[in-house]
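Here we describe the complex-level prediction in full. Unlike the single-chain runs in Section 2.1, the two entities below were treated as one system.
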Amino acid sequence: MKVVLARDLLKVNADLAAENRRAFERQGITVINLIGSPGAGKTTLLEKSLPFLTREAAVAVVEGDIATTRDAERIERLGVPVVQINTGGSCHLDAQMVASAVAELPMTKLDLVLVENVGNLVCPAAFDLGEQAKVAVLSVTEGNDKPAKYPRVFREAAAVIITKADLIPHTDFDLAFCRSELAALGSQAQVFVTSAAKEQGFAEGAAWLLKVRRGWRGVPGHSLSSCRSQL
Amino acid sequence: MKVVLARDLLKVNADLAAENRRAFERQGITVINLIGSPGAGKTTLLEKSLPFLTREAAVAVVEGDIATTRDAERIERLGVPVVQINTGGSCHLDAQMVASAVAELPMTKLDLVLVENVGNLVCPAAFDLGEQAKVAVLSVTEGNDKPAKYPRVFREAAAVIITKADLIPHTDFDLAFCRSELAALGSQAQVFVTSAAKEQGFAEGAAWLLKVRRGWRGVPGHSLSSCRSQL
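The structure predicted for the assembly as a whole is:
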């Protein structure tokens, strides 16, 4: 019974997500779904990447949080259009929430919308938002066993951004082991190693994202896997 | 519609949780629901606390993970009875899963069962397992804004265990600010600051837990709030 109800919800969401995706493709907008644990550094990643992205693309941000507008305030300070979704308890964004949020954005003028999901490695992976790609964010302090323990998001992510790399010397994080855990899932994600404290890795991540975007541009229905082979 | 379905699930769970709670009280067993983000250090907290707890109580552990048996293997090495629940995708434990797990434990011989929930600051807070208390685990690298952003678990927790305190010098974590964020939620949680690298804080946390347990023992229906006033 429980499974049936959950599947109904997922079906409703999948239909709405497909509508979002068609609308984004029609408008030529690339939408990225950013997923990571609480405190993985998703908002900091946005703050550090936006200066590189806005040089070449018209970018907006959708912030998903259970409560508070703190993340949106941080993005607003950078002069980037932002909409805050407060889920009021829900552990993930869904396609309906994203449709409502982008209705508040000047979509005809945008190239790229970065959606920061609720801090959660589990549920956001199950709810398609209509995005073109998921990006997983993993801080080194969470440990390198996370891909195996939270497989779905890491299996589906087009890129994995490792954050807080400056803390590696103080943890038992092992990048080679983490890569092997990703490979064991069949992941073909691009992996970027970043540090906000040392201002490292954000230019490379932003360049990848812009390249992926150019791969899609003007090629409706162009899939991420065919983009990958072009990179 | 969605909300109605969700409430039905929560009602079914609440009924099962009440059954669990009655059984645990009848058996004189204290059950703790340990909740934190992926990589917050929940399993390490158990590893470091169990030596103190097992001196004075018969303890078992229930490990909740979406996938893998890695956490249960770590606990097994300490010679403590442990049952691994693999939720197969579900983002939280529920009362039914816990009822099935404890059926595998020698309950008549136990004083204390520590349940490590799936790594997730959101959904586990909404699913009562029949525990006597929730304990929230927060690593300093997640940032001190987490109580405001994930209010439910921090509001309901009887204790908050801050982990990885040795990394404070490398982060912007501010313990006083974090305490003020907890206070703003109306939290009356005991706060313990721990570091596995420095072997600090685990004896104090374990002593609190054993004291809480003695407060309940032999006083069926004794609530945590009345325990608190005795401490």
